Every structure is written in C-alpha cells, then in structure tokens.
Structure prediction request, 110 residues.
Amino acid sequence: MSDPVALVARQAAKKLAPHAPGVRSDVEAALDRRSSGQYLDPVSLGALVVSAAQLAWTIHRDRERKAPPDVIAHEVRVRLEAPADVTTEVRNRLVEAVVRETVVAAEQGH
Prediction:
C-alpha cells in the first residue's frame, strides 16, 4: 500500500504551487525528513502541508471515512498550528487542497 499522507501532500502541493512558489520542493524535503525519522522544520510550508495531510488523513480514517469534507477541513483548521508568517488565505487554501486530496486518495483505496 502506498503512503496516503505522501500522496495527499504531493497532490495538495501541486494545487498550491501557483499561489506558493517552492511549495512542491518544500513538501518533498519534508517528506524526505519524515521518512528518515527526522523532525520536520516547523516554519517550512512543506512541513505544514505534510502535517496537514497527516492530520486530515487521521481525521478521515478515525471517523471511518464518514465525515464530509467541510467537517474534516474545519477540524484541520482548528487543530493545525501554522507559523505566524503563513497568511490565513494561504492556510485556508492549503487546508482545502489537503482535504480535497485526502478524500480523493481515500476514494481510490489508498
């Protein structure tokens, strides 16, 4: 089985790329650090995407895939701590992209 968190993080980064240059490479770096067991850089946008993907996937799985996307997005927004330099607009786009990709990945059986 593939890593659903990595899949979601990469797809979300792809969607965010027009609004956040460099996010794709940040996500890849964060995923590399994650797979090697290193701590994520808390100020990295890539690390934030991976953290959001992990949180969204966990919420989705824990609710037995019954929660609608807007409920998952709300819970991610409440629980996700974003660095001060990440605007609300970027944070909201990030959460929406991550949740959308989480639902897609789950529908595809990941």
Summary: The chain has five helices and no strands. Residues 60 and 67 are 7 Å apart (CA to CA).
